Amino acid sequence: MFQPATTTEPDRHAESRDIWNLNAHFWIEHFGAEGNDFHRVLVAPAAERLLALKGGEHVLEVSCGSGLFARRIIDLGAESVVAFDYSKVFVDEARKRNEGYEDKIEFLVLDATDEQAMVRELMPRSGKKGFDKALSNMAIMDISDITPLFRALRTLLNPGAQFIATLMHPAFNHPDSVRGVEQFDLPNGETVKRTYIKAHEYLGARPVKGIGIPGQAHAHWYFPRSLHDIFNIAFGAGFVVDGFEEAAWNREEGEEKNLTPSWKDMTKLPPVVAIRFRVL
Ligand SMILES: C[S@@+](CC[C@H](N)C(=O)[O-])C[C@H]1O[C@@H](n2cnc3c(N)ncnc32)[C@H](O)[C@@H]1O
């Protein structure tokens, strides 16, 4: 499902945005009004736990797609959300879906790799003390360079504020890792079936193209990074980590015999991590 990188860095960044614009309608259709099961079961619960909204917060959402989670943040009690994405098609769709939230959510087209533009556009919208929280769902591995984002967030967030990021687990859910099921017999005659991940590139992984939702017409760019790469970029920008979750599916007891190489059957291999960074 993946293609190795062939283009150069600036080409890849521009191509990546073009591909998100091309895929946006397909993604929105397949994501559904409430989010797909990946979102509902793994991503949103972890994001909400780490976000721990108390009510009244001013929140920044990075790479918001069609705005589903921005609306959820308001429903959870936040006062206001500024949400951005570099795909104009996604932002146009988010604005169309904003009925009832017009006074609470503002959607912008902005590039998370452009520190100057983020500070210029978001600083006047950050409130007197800066944003109280920031969040990004399932986008860190899609952003070609995350150093400008952490640097901008350091400027835009209120002292002590947190940035929560959910992303594909860099160790297990790499675009070119292989999922499988193996079966073997024990000396006592029992047959064991179990799922596994075969990974061959975690450290120093290169950008690759892959599919996020089966059936999407255009493979998009992934920019995989190890956890220590992500952490060190955040530490270098003045953040610490104060929350961390690894999310996997739960399966009903007794279904072991029908294992498939789907994430839903990989109850011990988490496809999603949720990290909470805090401004020092
Ligand atoms: C997998 S989608 C997730 C969308 C949304 N957060 C959700 O959970 O449905 C990844 C998103 O990252 C956005 N993205 C990728 N690179 C970006 C960048 N440099 N700046 C802003 N958004 C970016 C894409 O346009 C896309 O909307």
UniProtKB/TrEMBL annotation:
<dbReference type="Pfam" id="PF13649">
    <property type="entry name" value="Methyltransf_25"/>
</dbReference>
<dbReference type="InterPro" id="IPR029063">
    <property type="entry name" value="SAM-dependent_MTases_sf"/>
</dbReference>
<keyword id="KW-0808">Transferase</keyword>
<protein>
    <submittedName>
        <fullName>Methyltransferase type 11</fullName>
    </submittedName>
</protein>
<dbReference type="GO" id="GO:0032259">
    <property type="term" value="P:methylation"/>
</dbReference>
<keyword id="KW-0489">Methyltransferase</keyword>
<dbReference type="GO" id="GO:0008168">
    <property type="term" value="F:methyltransferase activity"/>
</dbReference>
<feature type="domain" description="Methyltransferase">
    <location>
        <begin position="59"/>
        <end position="160"/>
    </location>
</feature>
<dbReference type="InterPro" id="IPR041698">
    <property type="entry name" value="Methyltransf_25"/>
</dbReference>
